[in-house]
């Protein structure tokens, strides 16, 4: 069968135990070579057939899968982060359904989680933001009109922007048409959890300049919102004067 596996954000030891076990057992691995850390391929057996999907079309991927399935070989489709985000897995699953080839899905640690860890940040701070918007800029691939950056920025919530580090001037302008201001905190997180990880903090009004000064134009997430600022409210969860199912409140 085919196992869709989330490779995690980059560090080889951030793949799940299940994902690592599937890689070790695989007869065929098709991995997203433009984003997946190639160090993960060290988990594969020496006789495993490895294909880089960055150089393939969907039809070519499916042809490899069909041939391997016909030979009763176990296949891992290795995607970066968690494949449910920008992984283009739905079209693969629908094609496998049509072919009658079984599959399952092993989740991974998304790069947006890795970016928060790199920035030592909490996306959902009490009194600041309780909503995380994960999105991307329209580029060669469009986004629905109702999901434009400026429209989403109107909420002023925590925002994590994928696949947009090469369009920082346009992204900055669109974000500023929402509820954010030039002084809203922002960060560029380049290759979160990789050895070359870099976190660049700035104001939103200087986002594009920060990208140019640090030579960041791809493989980076953009974080925007007041969750990056120092002010927030203490959580009620651990407040001694707040009762919970497991703890009485102090008088």
List the topology elements.
Elements: E1 2-6, H1 17-25, E2 28-31, E3 49-52, H2 58-70, E4 75-79, H3 90-99, E5 103-106, H4 111-118, E6 132-136, H5 149-153, E7 158-162, H6 168-175, E8 185-190, E9 198-203, H7 207-213, E10 220-224
Parallel strand pairs: 1-4, 1-5, 2-3, 2-4, 6-7
Antiparallel strand pairs: 7-10, 8-9, 8-10
3D architecture notes:
The structure is a single chain. The chain starts with a strand and ends in a 27-residue tail after the last strand. The radius of gyration is 21 Å and the shape is globular. The chain has a five-stranded parallel β-sheet, with helices on both faces. The chain has a five-stranded mixed β-sheet with strand order 6-7-10-8-9, with helices on both faces. It is an alpha/beta fold. It has helices at residues 17-25, 58-70, 90-99, 111-118, 149-153, 168-175, 207-213; strands at 2-6, 28-31, 49-52, 75-79, 103-106, 132-136, 158-162, 185-190, 198-203, 220-224. The mean pLDDT is 96. Strand 6, helix 5 and strand 7 (158-162) form a beta-alpha-beta unit. It folds into two domains: 2-106, Cobalt-precorrin-4 Transmethylase, domain 1 (3-Layer(aba) Sandwich), CATH 3.40.1010; 111-228, 2-Layer Sandwich (Methyltransferase, Cobalt-precorrin-4 Transmethylase, Domain 2), CATH 3.30.950.10. It is built from seven helices and ten strands.
Whole-number tally of structural domains: 2
Rg value: 21 Å
Give the strand line-up of the largest sheet: 3-2-4-1-5
Q: Give the CATH topology of the largest domain.
A: Methyltransferase, Cobalt-precorrin-4 Transmethylase, Domain 2
